[in-house]
Amino acid sequence: MSVVFREPFPATAPGGYVIGLVGDDGAGKRDLLELAAGLRQASPDAVTASPPRRYLGPSDTAGIGDAMTLAMYHTLATKDAATRARTAMDLELLRRRGGAALLVSHEPDLLAWLSDEIWWIDQGRLKQKGDPREVLDAYRRHVAARLREQANGSSLMLTPTMRKGDGRAVLESVETLDESGRPVAVWQTGAMVGVRVVVRFERWVADPVVGILIRTRIGFEVFGTNTELEKVKLGPCQASDALGITFRFPCHLCPQEYTLTAASHDPDGVWHDWMEDGLAFSVVDHRYTAGVACLRAHIEVQKLTK
What we know:
By secondary structure, the chain is an alpha/beta fold.
């Protein structure tokens, strides 16, 4: 039997379907589940759902039993792999007896695995529904845009894990920039981005070199360069001189968290100021990509004959 919503929006969860729900906090996902499970009062005929109904919350065991209408609100968030696999089998039994399930989770991969359809709830309305991959990709774009908007105009400075140098120059600021040159704490995969380093010289330096190094949060070195490698000469610099150096490049990084190291030093490696892991930033994208390098592969398929 299906679950039919007439309020707050017209939508039907067909019998034999598991519907995954995504949306920002406060969008109305929990309200919808409580309506389906009969825990929330609604106007007459607002919701039609087959008994027995069952609502499972974050702290409940993932026992579906004989439910024909099932509402799971983050129930699998803290469950182990064995429990999740057993729940997947229980959901298949629910499908075969014609029941309907609504599943809320913050894990896109879990929803893609368990769901036949995804509903995107936005401010109490059904913004989009359909194929799990298509709707999840659209929602990821929304989340990425929201993260970038929230992170505009700021950089996340850390306490450096190491800071050393002979003091002939000082790193006054290090910032990650978006495609418009504005400070941000979040980069978008595929966009032109930048790193700006401001160096002030305390004493005369004949031939300074300024460099950057990007690492993953577990310390894996991803990319590093400096003005010497890029054949840009900065010196000689006098005491009280200040330079702003901006490194620009397309962001070919996969979504995750990174740290940034910056340094001013001589060509032979003697440090003026070295700031190890002094800045943190994130990379977001609308799709899942494994690893660190996002190379955006183009695929060619040939049908081969024997």
